[in-house]
């Protein structure tokens, strides 16, 4: 029974090195998330600029409604 109580107490009150390690891991995870968000935002910005410079053209009615021949040519 003593061993179980010891494990229970150690889970409730981690020692200082464990707290440092947990804080370090949490900080590292937060930094990774921040970096990924920054990269995502930069990629979105670049994509938006590219879409403004080179808009995606939609086919006009004349070419969209043109009949397609059996050989695939219009």
TrEMBL record:
Q: Where in the cell is it found?
A: Nucleus
Segments carrying the region annotation (Disordered) are: 52-74
Q: What is its EC number?
A: 2.3.2.27
Pfam families per record: Prp19
Q: What's any one GO cellular component for it?
A: cytoplasm
Q: Name one GO molecular function term.
A: ubiquitin protein ligase activity
GO terms, biological process: DNA repair; mRNA splicing, via spliceosome; protein K63-linked ubiquitination
Domain named Prp19 coiled-coil region is located at 24-49
Q: Which reaction does it catalyse?
A: S-ubiquitinyl-[E2 ubiquitin-conjugating enzyme]-L-cysteine + [acceptor protein]-L-lysine = [E2 ubiquitin-conjugating enzyme]-L-cysteine + N(6)-ubiquitinyl-[acceptor protein]-L-lysine
What keyword terms does UniProt attach to this protein? DNA damage, DNA repair, mRNA processing, mRNA splicing, Nucleus, Spliceosome, Transferase, Ubl conjugation pathway
Pathway linked to the protein: Protein modification; protein ubiquitination
Q: How does it assemble?
A: Homotetramer.
**What does the protein in this record do?**
Ubiquitin-protein ligase which is mainly involved pre-mRNA splicing and DNA repair. Required for pre-mRNA splicing as component of the spliceosome.
Q: Which family does it belong to?
A: Belongs to the WD repeat PRP19 family.
Can you name this protein?
Pre-mRNA-processing factor 19
Please report the organism this UniProt entry assigns to the protein.
Answer: Trifolium medium
